[in-house]
Amino acid sequence: RARVRFVVVFVLEHALLSWRMAYSWDCVEVVALSVVATLVCELMSWVFAYRKNSYKQLVKSITREGKKLESMKSDFVGLANKSKQHKKKEERLEQILKQNNFELQKVKLTSTVCASVVLLVLYSMISKRYSGIIVAKLPFEAPWPIKSAVRRGLDSDDLTDCSVTYIYIVCSAALRSNIQKLLGFSPPRQTQMVASSPFEQKLRDERDK
Question: Which residue, among 17, 30, 56, has the nearest Cα to 135 in the 3D structure?
Fold first, then answer.
């Protein structure tokens, strides 16, 4: 029932977005093509990664170890000092999560490369097809940080005119995560618990002192 509710909200939100931004059917076509491309990318991810036992086992391991780490940290919330044994257990679980996350990315490498190629080819085709065409009207004037993407290839003076580049970028950024949730292929949220850079790791170490 929760998934059905999510699907309804997802469809209504994107339909409303397309209606607000639509200048012609070109905008709707670009959104539809982006949805199809995202589904193709997820199909390739299923072929190369999601259906494999190695991927499923890594996801289960990340979820299990992540929950252990969350539980361990919640037990010591508000305490000024942690015992050395507790810190060692946390470090061990974090190392396991890092290693499993690294292995997960290796399993997904082929599908990630294929998806990038598909999206790049689609963008090349769409940009040629809709070059110089106003595909949407924004409900606001494009601010300078996104102005180049919004008005790329357009000669009009109306700052609310939108090119295909902006629509494609927005769809690529927003659709995939939502479609992954819809299909049940979202990466485990426990992967976000692992520091992904030395700066984040330093902050975490300072916080735990």
Answer: 30
- pTM for the model stands at 0.70
pLDDT digits (tens, 9 = 90+) for 77-135: 655 566 777 778 888 888 888 898 899 989 999 989 998 898 889 889 888 888 888 88
Q: What residues pair up with 161 in beta bridges, in sequence order? A: 137
Element housing 136 (H / E): strand 136-137
* Joined tokens for residue 205: 């170490």
What DSSP string describes 64-123?
HHHHHHHHHHHHTTT-S---HHHHHHHHHHHHHHHHHHHHHHHHTHHHHHHHHHHHHHHH
Q: Which neighbouring-strand residues pair with 136?
A: 22, 162
Backbone angles phi, psi at 115, to 5 degrees: -65, -40
pLDDT tens digits along 49-74: 999 999 999 999 988 888 888 887 77
Helix (H) or strand (E) holding 169: helix 164-183
CB 149 within 8 A of CB 9: no
Beta carbons within 10 angstroms of residue 111's beta carbon: 20
Contact indicator for 57, 67 with CB cutoff of 8 Å: no
Whole-angstrom distance, CA of residue 169 vs CA of residue 107: 26
Element spanning 2, H or E? helix 2-21
Three-state DSSP state, 130:
coil
* Residue closest to 104 by CA, chosen among 35, 31, 45: 45
